[in-house]
Amino acid sequence: MSLPDETLHKILQQIQQTAQQSSRALSISRAQTAQKERERRILQLTIGEISSIPRNASGEDVNLYKGVGKMFMQVPRPILEKDMKSQEKELTDDISNLNKKIKYLEKQYNDAQSQLKDIFHSSQPR
Predict the structure, then answer these.
(1) 5-52 and 77-123 helices cross at what angle (nearest 10)?
(2) What does the pLDDT average to over 19-27?
(3) Domain limits of the chain?
(4) What is the per-residue pLDDT across 49-90, written as a single tens digit (0 to 9) for each?
(5) Hey, is 34 helix, strand or coil?
(6) Which of 27, 80, 90, 112 would disulfide-bridge 19, Cβ 3.0–4.6 Å?
(7) Distances from the Cα of 63 to the Cαs of 34, 86, 99, in angstroms?
(8) Average per-residue pLDDT for the chain
(9) Helix or strand run (H / E) with residue 64
(10) Coiled coil: which residue ranges (predicted)?
(11) Is the predicted pLDDT of residue 5 greater than 90, yes or no?
């Protein structure tokens, strides 16, 4: 069973296009994952630093400030810690979803590459 050259050419183009799109999306997803990992690590370090700050002599929390645009707002320690932990959870979820996407894209890319190999091996004269 041999396909006409024009049909084979169209199939090859489509498979190559799929492989290129998967490769691009894969590199973008990996960059996004690395960025989110950095953000999460910075957040974890900040949470650790905030937790290690002792209370003042009268037993009250020290003043903590949160950046809001170009200004800073005083925020109670429990609220700041809660916000940071929810941001950390959100980043962890994003990283998990990106890892799933990366696995899917890797599979899609590998499938396209194997299809190309199969086509080239089957079309070579023996």
Answers:
(1) 160
(2) 93
(3) 5-123
(4) 998 888 776 767 788 899 999 999 999 888 999 999 999 999
(5) helix
(6) 112
(7) 33, 21, 38
(8) 88
(9) strand 64-68
(10) 81-115
(11) no
Gap between the Cα atoms of 60 and 48, Å rounded:
19
3-state DSSP assignment of residue 66: strand
SS3 per-residue string spanning 94-109: HHHHHHHHHHHHHHHH
Position 121 scores a pLDDT of: 79
Specify the pLDDT at position 125.
63
pTM score over 0.85? no
Give me the CATH code for the 5-123 domain, please: 1.10.287.370
Residue 126 belongs to what H/E stretch?
A: none
- Cα separation, 33 vs 91, in Å, equals 10
- Residue appearing with tokens 């959100």: 90
For the chain, the maximum distance between any two Cα atoms, rounded to a whole number of angstroms, is: 88
